[in-house]
Amino acid sequence: MGPSTIIRGVVFDLDGLLFDTEALFFRVASEMLRDRGKVFTVEIMRAMIGRQPAESGLAFKTMAGLDDAPEALMAEAKRRFEALIDTAVRPMPGLIALLAHLERLDLPLAVGTSSGREYAERLLRNHRLRDRFAAVLCREDVARHKPDPEIYRTAAERLGAEPASVLVLEDTPTGLAAAKAAGTFAVGVPHDHSPASDLAAADLIVASLDDPALLARLDRGRV
Q: Does the global pTM surpass 0.90?
């Protein structure tokens, strides 16, 4: 997507991009390791973020020096996490302002996440945001997960747009790789658990979802 390319749709990742679920996972994982006499670190979190459960569980086990099976660790983390998502999760900074801006631009929106549908729909409905999105693409909707580009190519198709005219918002290297491989304009939005240095592949890196640089790029894309 060049500087004059018309933007015909916007796709959001879910965890750590729409909602601060990464912060909640860090809290949950920290509690799990504290119960085992160990410490959850930023380095372990960065090795887990944006990956499928099997990969994350293996990183969790090996880097924390645990005896538990990776599957058992992720199952426990999921139980603890899901007990809190209805009360402890918040929209990421700038999200509501960005959604209002996109509504004024009359752009169709989608979600593209590696998480499951029940979970994604639960988060969106909890925050009364489900109706903002024309499509919600989840783990069940694709054969190949991020960093494969399938989910973002499918999202573009659902929005009736060519990938080159779609802007994707991501917070992880894995997600950015998928967005870039799909041929979209990939915007990196760093946070405490995914620093800007990990998002160098992005076409644009912004400080938050309502960063003036992002809003200006969207405005230029509608001229």
A: yes
Radius of gyration of the chain (CA): 17
> What type of residue sits at position 157?
E
Task: State pLDDT tens for residues 70-79.
Answer: 999 999 999 9
Active site residue: 15, 20, 171, 198, which one?
A: 15
Backbone φ and ψ of 166, nearest 5°: -110, 135
d(CA 49, CA 53): 10
Which residues constitute the domain of residue 122? 9-20+90-220
As a whole number of angstroms, the distance between CA 74 and CA 78 comes to: 6
In this structure, the answer to whether residues 155 and 208 fall within a common structural domain is: yes
Active-site position among 13, 20, 171, 210? 13
Please state, for a pLDDT cut of 70, what percent of the chain lies above it.
Answer: 97
- Considering the domain architecture, whether residues 201 and 113 belong to the same structural domain is answered as yes
The total number of structural domains in the chain stands at 2
Please answer whether residues 166 and 150 qualify as being in contact, where contact means their C-beta atoms are separated by less than 8 angstroms. no
Say whether 13 is catalytic. Answer: yes
Answer with the one of 87, 105, 126 that is the final residue of a domain: 87
